Amino acid sequence: MTSSTDLDQLAEIELRREEEEDEEERSCETDAPSLTSIPSSNTPDSSHPYYDVARHGIIQVSGDDKYGRKLIVFSSCCLPPSHQLNHRRLLEYLKFTLDQYVEMDYILVYFHYGLRSSNKPSLKWLREAYAEFDRKYKKNLKTLYVVHPTNFIRIVWNIFKPLISHKFGKKLTYVNFLSELRDHLNYEQLIIPPDVLRHDEKLRASQKGGPPPSVKAPPPRPPLPTQQFGVTLQYIREKNREAIIPPVMSQTVAFLKQKGLQTEGIFRRSARVQIIKDVQKLYNLGKPVNFSEFGDVHVPAVILKTFLRELPEPLLTFRVYSQVLGLLSVESSLRVSRCKQIVESLPEHHFIVTKFLLAFLHMVSAESLVNRMSPSNLACVFGVNLLWPRHGSISLSALTPINIFTEILIEHYTTVFGSRCPTTQVLP
């Protein structure tokens, strides 16, 4: 039987062997220098409490998956040499990031490429880290994707097997090529380091003995006349007899108002993936949806978030994104007034639909003693589904102003939305 010490040594040997092979490949690519860098839009502000770690871009919040679960990415190639990084601080920063999302279902994506003997945390550190991640962190983790696994990963997994429950072990999914992630995630939202992209191309080229196939998505098909997901508010209105509120929103809100206001953790839980796909298909084909048939109040909750997330332009529009990011520079006492100005600048149809949604979220927050969904908790769920940049993903540093903005809209709904009352407005 192989001892733990033997496995530790075997892992070290395997990692060094993989590192040597990679160095040999690099020596043959004099015209292909390392490309890893942090996109400027994702570089944290120097006031960030973990700026010393965050500035490397090792951990990124990268949007949601197709079913509303937050994506958190860990990129090994962004780890600096060990003497330049306090790994204890790295663990604290990882927990700091996860603490914002562990009450909701979430996904971890681990890019293994780039881990070397010079930058890897010790196996002792890994054991201590796993021990510190108690049930709070493990309970709502739905999947851990390990991208580009190697023998080193499999050896480490064997080292940890005695410590890991069978239930947690089932959450691990190996991903050999980036293209496989398209089946599970919103691939375009992922923050993938350039070195990982280049490594993936080499792997696919070597496997097929030729140039790597394109991983670009096929061109989109024209939407159906009955389409509800992935089309603009204007398109939905034109195809639904000038309905002011999109049918998906009006129907999910009506059901949740009746059945879900006192459900603990409403909007924080996911639902069965196949059910969500089936409901989306029904809506897109113009067929009726009866949420009572599913026996799960989280189904309409997920459908509502999914509808918002799949809008081609966010409900709050691309135009206000930079204004919302500037909210942190506004004095706390003036932020409600500033949020009111931003919201009132929305085009009329976007304003009406936003007011409808926020009126409902205000109702949800009024039951927070029962459902545990305070304005702050709702903001963490809905902020990134209401607003995102025109290009790229929401950076970790942008989450704070977006969440503060959304919290203000929910908590101070009457003040923010009270003055502008369009004649065609609809309230839940």
Explained architecture:
- With 428 residues, this protein is α/β, with parallel strands linked by helices.
- 46% of the residues lie in helices and 7% in strands.
- The chain has 19 helices and five strands.
- It has a five-stranded mixed β-sheet with strand order 1-2-3-4-5, with helices on one face.
- Strand 2, helix 3 and strand 3 form a beta-alpha-beta unit.
- Share in helix: 40-55%
C-alpha termini separation: 65 Å
Proportion of residues in extended strands:
5-15%
Run of helices and strands: HHEEHEHHEHHEHHHHHHHHHHHH
Coarse morphology: globular
- The number of helical elements comes to 19
| Strand elements, count | 5
Summed over residues and divided by their number, the pLDDT gives a mean of 84
Strand order in the sheet with the most strands = 1-2-3-4-5
Radius of gyration: 23 Å
Structural class: alpha/beta
Residue stretches low in confidence (pLDDT < 50, at least 5 long) are 28-41
Give the biggest beta sheet.
5 strands, mixed
Structural features:
19 helices
Brief synopsis:
The chain has helices at residues 4-27, 51-54, 87-98, 123-132, 135-138, 151-160, 166-169, 194-208, 233-239, 247-259, 273-284, 298-309, 321-325, 335-344, 348-366, 368-371, 375-386, 396-411, 413-417; strands at residues 59-64, 70-75, 106-111, 141-147, 172-175. By secondary structure, the protein is α/β, with parallel strands linked by helices. The chain is globular.
